[in-house]
Amino acid sequence: MDFYYNMGIRVNFAVFEEGLVVVRERRNKEKLVSYYNKFMNEGIVDPNVHPWIAASWQRCRQMRLPHEVMNPIKKLTRAEVAQHLKKHAMVLGYLERLYEQTKQHLNMHNLSMLLIDNEGYVVKNYAMPFFQRSIENIQGMRVLEQDVGTSSVSIALEHNTPFLMFGPEMWIRDCHSGDACSAPIFVNGKLRYVLTFFSMETKNLPYDLLLNHLLTMKYAIEQHLTMLEQKVVNDILMAQLPAAVFCLDRDGNIKYCNSRARERMEGRSRFQDVFLNYEHIPIAPALNGQSTLHKELTWITQDKAYEDVTSVLPIDTGSEITGALIVSMSIEDLKTTIAHATGYSSRYSLYSMVGESEVFQTLQHKAGRLAKTNRNILLQGEPGTGKQRLAHGIHQLSDRAAAPLISVKCKGDSKYMHEELFGCQEKSKNTQGKLELVSGGTLFVDEVEKMPSDIGDELADYLAGNKRKNIRLIAACDSNLKKLTDKKLFSSKLFDIVMATVLKVPSLGDRPEDIEIISNHILREMSLHYNVPPKKLTDEALEVLMKGEWPGNIKQLQGVIEKAFFHTSSSMIGADDIRVPDKKESEKSWKYDKEVFVAAWKSAGGNISRLSQILGVSRVTLYRYLRKYNLDV
Q: Can you say how many angstroms the Cα of residue 117 is from the centroid of all Cα atoms in its chain?
């Protein structure tokens, strides 16, 4: 405890965990009255006036606040007071209990108590019967400095510390007969309330006990509110946690369980009454201090089995083990959670594809109907027609929308495709296949025609033999699978699965009337995605687009519009801004000009099949030029 003299005033600072607490010694009231009168009559601050109080007096004078009696001040209506009490019911319930325990002490020293919120409004007053009449109207009143002038409340709020104020130091002369002490209440670093003790009589008032009592209640309320906030967070966490959580006492009885755990208990309270393999759940080791971490465990009930990853931990207080905590998560839920966390979800809705042509409307309506079924689907169409977006839309509209949508792009490499689908169990490269993550969801296999026949057979066998995995397959291709299958270049087993339901996606050449609506839709999407002002096509620009052949379909159209969007400073995109790759022109220059090749490649969206159609050359030739120009596929 440090002592010092500040302008002739002896002040005692006690250091607590949360900061400085000002503990002031008893003052001569007659002298304090004289300092007050000197300031009110002459505007002179005596050197013996506490500097915080002096500064507040000067602000009150500048605000021209009345100082003889309290003028009518801002107050909540009766309805607002009722709402105020309801809002703060959590702290009031606790404070009521504290008050009842300390009521005798407060009564002994003629003390009353106020709880004030962080906006300065009195939430509740706790007054002795003798004083009730004098403060009965204070509830709902705002008691900030601009309302009532200098007070222990205003000083405590300004300096974030408990403060004792003697009657003659208060701004309102009517309040000089009693002293007051206020303490701010902080929860997680944020001011929540101010607690105030005041007395109408100050004769023989034990200031040290008064302050100690106030601080005890302050810290009790702070701890209580902190624990309540932690409980709210804990309740939310436990409700949202995708795991069953049990807290057991020393005898193995359930003290707490979250909603997922309660579902497993089926209304019963004892583990051994629910789980047939209770003895195999490692509860006993935990109660003896041994942790079990991430163990694959089957929880077996009369009607159901849960395949989980389970951890059982001892609750060790340091002096004894008081119980055990069980956290058990379904392996299937865990896989789904991982899938979502790694971005395996639908990005497009079915209605993000636009068009008014009859052929497109027929496709969209049929896709919408099929989305509600569990049938496997083959999307057949030229490169760039929107097969991937269509697959996303079907998944999003299906009952599987909350489950993962996992995409696999096929290559002709059997080893690569096997690891992609089934994972790798080698110690040096232990990876999980995408089939393990897609349970309950949709597997989208793009360019399925490139899947090696042996991998196709293995995938077909997996889907047939793992019905409980409940995987829907959507495949996309731009080739004739029947011919490939007949030539034994594609798995006949997988062919039978994917050909059950076929959706033929029309090329842009089959729906030229949709070019305008698609182009405008692309512009709107770009404006929203990049957060830039919208742009429009002139009639001349639209005419250029309408005359294009678009062998790369919508993807090629999108590439051309995107290039015009970024290279046009105006809000209008004109005909001169549109650069549709001319097939003959491209043939002449792309072999010798890297910039022209890159432009065509971008127009094809980086898709080799699409670029092959645009330039009219084989894929083998294109790979050679990709290497020549140091471009990565």
A: 29
**Torsional sign, CA 471, 475, 481, 485:** negative
> Can you say how many angstroms the Cα of residue 429 is from the centroid of all Cα atoms in its chain?
33
When pLDDT is averaged across residues 501-523 and rounded to a whole number, the result is 94
Residue 170 is classified by DSSP as S
Phi-psi region of 491 (alpha: psi -120 to 50; beta: other; left: phi over 0): beta
* Phi, psi torsion values for 70, nearest 5 degrees: -80, 120
Pairing of the two strands 502-504 and 19-24? unpaired
Distance CA 178, CA 198 (A): 7
Lowest-pLDDT range of 102-111, 311-320, 335-344, 428-437: 335-344
Q: For residue 521, how many other CB atoms are within 10 A of its CB?
A: 18
The answer to whether 614 and 583 have CB atoms below 8 angstroms apart is yes
Which residues, at least 6 apart from 44, have a Cβ–Cβ distance to it below 8 Å? 38
Residue 73's H or E segment, with its range, is none
Helix (H) or strand (E) holding 394: helix 387-397
CA 508 to each of CA 384, 536, 537, 549, 618: distance values in angstroms, whole numbers, following the listed order: 9, 21, 19, 9, 22
SS3 string, 281-299, reads CCHHHHHCCCCEEEEEEEE
Phi-psi region of 630 (alpha: psi -120 to 50; beta: other; left: phi over 0): left
Contact 334, 309 (CB under 8 A): yes
Q: Which of 340, 435, 355, 338 is nearest to 390 (CA)?
A: 355
For residue 143, give the nearest of 171, 112, 119 by alpha carbon: 119
Which DSSP state fits 64? T
Q: What dihedral angle (degrees, nearest 10) is formed by the CA atoms of 433, 439, 442, 446?
A: 10
Find the range with the poorest average confidence among 248-257, 327-336, 545-554: 327-336
Alpha carbons 38 and 34: distance in angstroms, whole number:
6
Which candidate, 122, 185, 179, 189, places its Cα nearest to that of 157? 185
Residue 426 CA to chain centroid, in angstroms?
Answer: 37
CA 253-257-260 angle, 5° bins:
135
- Taking the C-alpha atoms of residue 462 and residue 233, their distance in angstroms, rounded to an integer, is 42
Length of the chain: 633
Q: What are phi and psi of 303, to 5 degrees?
A: -115, -10
Residues 33-48, mean pLDDT to the nearest whole number:
94
From residue 312, give the alpha-carbon distance in Å to each of 258, 297, 317, 327, 329: 15, 11, 16, 7, 12
- The 10s digit of each residue's pLDDT in 118-134 is 999 999 988 654 444 44
Query: Nearest 10 degrees: CA dihedral of 436, 440, 446, 447?
Result: 80
* Cα angle value 335/339/341 (rounded, 5°): 115
- Reference 326, options 294, 304, 279, 300; nearest CA is 294
